[in-house]
Specification:
This protein is of the alpha/beta class. The chain has 13 helices and eight strands.
Length: 317
């Protein structure tokens, strides 16, 4: 319990356990069947483990990497019992996450020390982007920060209205130029307001359209340039929001967005609604971008700071 008390209160740990329940039940259930009646980790067990990891949406490339690591340990230790497999698999996944820039942070730390901090949020429609912004704003407000939300998704009236509702709910300020305004102009003016009125942090929403890579790249580049034109070095973080329930499709989305702009952090939502939580491991491995937040429920407090050891321990408990 000492580990969890360092990073989580008991309520957060329970939320994490519940959020990963579907993934854990599916993964550990399959793993138990694979090693039933086996005393050693042999080729057949490793083949089964490979299938389990792939079916849990860890992804082929990352799965092969994990299997190769376990094979190396089997060769080195000569005898490896199936009773040890859970612990070894747990350790290898934690090490993999550690190698991929997934650093544990506490208390929703801002990505930069200066004021204001500008966070640009990207992702396709329906992944929980606006909700993630609202929940993140809530955490910053709890820290006593002065927070501004910028409605840069100007192509959907619902997006502007939803962000306004979130600003009212968490008690932070809101900036919008209405529907069909130039998103880059909204980003510029949000940043300008944040600078002139001494905000601690401004979070700027963007459109979730993904019709072509070229359109996406052009739009995100324009928005980013507009922000940096007003404040050198901004945005200080580009947060990509992905929906865990889409499994491998989330990896495809990550490919598009990491090509289109310099994504610096990931938020993985809706983990509580899927058995595909293994996608977190694959995304971190393939894109070398740290997972910063995970959504483990609909509640306003259920956007958690990602902690790799807590995540993996909860998955294997």
């Amino acid at each position: 319990m000492s580990f969890f008390s360092k990073f989580f209160n008991q309520e957060k740990k329970q939320d994490l356990d519940k959020g990963l329940e579907k993934t854990k039940t599916s993964f550990l259930g399959k793993l138990s069947k694979a090693i039933a009646g086996k005393s050693t980790v042999d080729e057949e067990v490793l083949d089964e483990l490979e299938n389990i990891l792939i079916s849990s949406d860890v992804g082929l490339d990352t799965t092969i990497k994990i299997i190769q690591r376990i094979e190396a340990r089997v060769a080195r230790d000569k005898y490896l019992g199936t009773a040890e497999l859970n612990e070894i698999l747990r350790d290898e996944i934690v090490q993999l996450l550690a190698e991929n820039n997934t650093e544990d942070v506490e208390d929703y730390a801002l990505p930069a020390q200066q004021q204001p901090v500008i966070i640009m949020v990207v992702g396709v429609n329906g992944v929980g982007k606006t909700t993630t912004i609202g929940k993140l704003a809530h955490q910053y407000k709890k820290q006593g920060k002065k927070v501004l939300l910028g409605a840069g998704d100007t192509f959907r009236a619902a997006a502007v209205d939803q962000l306004r509702i979130w600003s009212e709910r968490v008690g932070c300020d809101f900036f919008s130029k209405g529907m069909n305004a130039d998103p880059a102009a909204v980003a510029y003016e949000t940043t300008n307001k944040a600078v002139n009125e001494a905000y601690d942090v401004a979070i700027i929403d963007t459109a979730g359209r993904l019709h072509t890579k070229i359109n996406l790249m052009n739009e995100l580049t324009k928005i980013r340039r507009s922000i940096s034109k007003r404040l050198e070095g901004a945005p200080h973080e580009v947060l990509l929001v992905l929906d865990a329930t889409t499994g491998q499709n989330a990896i495809e989305q990550a490919k598009h967005f990491t090509h289109a702009t310099e994504v610096s952090a990931l938020a993985l939502t809706k983990l509580d609604g899927t058995a595909k939580g293994g996608v977190a491991i694959g995304i971190s491995d393939q894109f070398k971008v740290p997972i910063k937040y995970i959504g483990v429920g609909e509640g306003i407090e259920q956007l958690q700071v990602f902690n790799k050891r807590a995540f993996v321990d909860s998955l294997f408990e």
